[in-house]
Amino acid sequence: MSFIKYAVPALVAAQTAMAASCGSTDSTITIASQTDLDTYATCTTLKGDVEISSSASGDLTLSGVTSITGSLSCTGASNVTSLTASALSSIGSAFTLDGLTTLTTLSFTNLSSVGSISWTALPELQSLDFTKGVSEAGDVLITNTGLTSLDGISLTTVGKFDITENTNLKTVNVNELTNATGLINFAGNMDSLQIILPNLGTGTNMTFRNVSGVSIPSLETLSGQLGFWGNTFGNFSAANLTTTGDLVFDDNTDLSNISMPVLKTVNGGFQIARNDKLKEITFPDLEEVTGAIDFSGDFDSVSLSALTEVKGGFNMQSTGNFSCSAFKTLRENNVIRGTYTCKANTTDPTTKDGSSGTGTSTSTSSTSSSTSSDSASVMNVASMPALGLAAVLGALLQYAL
């Protein structure tokens, strides 16, 4: 009996000590070496945050642990060459890596759920060893890495998806992604980058810069902006898109065809400018634009046969010999409510804000059609995005062409 009397409290104390050694909620476990990691090999769950010190170096392996309730972070550890956690399946909060300039291996073969991902300045990291694939994450930010693909990022939903300055990134194919609740942004990656989001059906804002292909065949609605700047693809199709916020095609040098056959509503401004190979513009189902229409370039024909309302202004200028007659009628019938300008065969077409509407200078005979204006408020799409997106576009000014 006396043995039990003393053994039970001792066992409880040992269990308490073991639990304490696996961290606690709202605490931080600091790792400076592999020896530190080894002390947690008997833990299946680490409670709180795990922070790898900037002084850590070499190959680091976290064994046995299947979950971290808080964050996993490592900042400024320029001598860490690999991070491995083969059993880890979930990170409750942020997974942050910043400034690991010699990291070549990131092996998390069972990881499927993270609170968010923020990876910055990992120039030697070329691939991910994420066999199971991360299917659950909030925001994902990957900037200035050596990654050639995002294989292992297998998201079904995401908040912000911001992929920038990864100059070796060749393909992004997130097959299972169906919804994005924040900004999807690609900018400054490899010029030949192909972006494939085959099952994305809904989203908020999507912006693409300096890419060679965008495939979004299932996209149906965007509550915010869809914008393309400085891309090199020849064709763009959004076969199922019916509604979007601001819609912008600006300075896409090889763009010769835009196919959006069921687009009905643009809740914002609609700009097409400086796409010199785009000769025909057709949006057969477009009915409503709540901002301005601002088309300028070298196009020869424009068809907006279903248009019933443009709440903002209307600016259409081209070196080509398109007809303004249909749009003049829309203006006279008050379908176009703001300032109206329509010019065909003009030598120097301009956008609504007066900037050049073509990517290269041209010399053609100038023949202007009717131009008129009224006192209606006009949203200038070239300089003002849809209401509520100013902060988003401000963050993207660093990529402006």
TrEMBL record:
Statement: the UniProt record of this protein carries the keyword Transit peptide: no
Keywords (alphabetical) are: Cell wall, Glycoprotein, Secreted, Signal
- Please classify the protein's predominant subcellular localization into one broad category: secreted
List the GO cellular component terms.
cell surface; fungal-type cell wall; plasma membrane
Q: Where is this region: Disordered?
A: 342-375
Question: Which residues does UniProt assign to the signal peptide?
Answer: 1-19
Give its localization: Secreted, Cell wall
Quote the Gene3D superfamilies the UniProt record gives: Receptor L-domain
Compositional bias ranges of the Low complexity kind: 346-375
Biological process terms from the Gene Ontology for this record are: fungal-type cell wall organization
Q: What is this protein called?
A: GPI-anchored cell wall organization protein Ecm33
The source organism is Aspergillus heteromorphus CBS 117.55
